[in-house]
Amino acid sequence: MERKLLSHDMTFSRIISAVLLILVPLLLIKASAPWWAPIIAVAIVGQMTVFIFYLPDTIEFDDNNMYIIRSNGEVSVDLRDIYKVKMVAFAVNRRYMWKIKYRVDGIEKTARFYPDSDRLMLDAFIAR
Questions:
Q1: How do the domains of the chain map onto residue ranges?
Q2: By three-state DSSP, how is residue 1 classified?
């Protein structure tokens, strides 16, 4: 059974976010903003970066299982344990975050991801 990648890595958006994290405080310093403005800007852009790019998981699936790949390892979930797949009202570059809810040993858990823009794999995943 061949694994198919469900999530997108958002590389271009990560680069743009890193550039903003550097440029926004520099522009505020150059514009003679109050001393605290660059600190606030770094905090806001930094939190957005963490939420947007490090909260989502890398997700693969095959005919029987979904595989959630995180920094602390890989979790295998039987497709029958998934009870909800829905789009979240949050988007980056018109690419919406999706949420998969599943149960493992009676405990409800959630995985978040950004699908590819063509949504072919997402549609195939939902059809299972």
A1: 4-127
A2: coil
Query: Which amino acid belongs to residue 66?
Result: M
User: In angstroms, rounded to a whole number, what is the distance separating the alpha carbons of residues 120 and 9?
Assistant: 16
Q: Distance between alpha carbon 112 and the CA centroid of its chain, in Å? A: 6
Residues contacting residue 58 through CB under 8 Å, at least 6 positions apart: 5, 7, 9, 68, 69, 70, 113
Cβ atoms within 10 A of the Cβ of 51, count?
12
Is 66 within 8 Å of 79 (Cβ atoms)? yes
Which pLDDT tens digit goes with each residue over 50-93? 777 666 788 999 989 999 988 788 989 999 999 999 998 877 77
**The CATH classification of domain 4-127, taken from the options 2.30.29, 2.60.40, 1.10.10, 2.40.30:** 2.30.29
Whole-model pTM?
0.71
H runs (alpha helix) in 31-119: 37-53
- At 89, phi and psi to the nearest 5? -80, 40
> In which order are the strands placed within the sheet that holds 107-113?
82-92, 95-104, 107-113
pLDDT digits (tens, 9 = 90+) for 13-36: 778 777 887 888 888 778 888 888
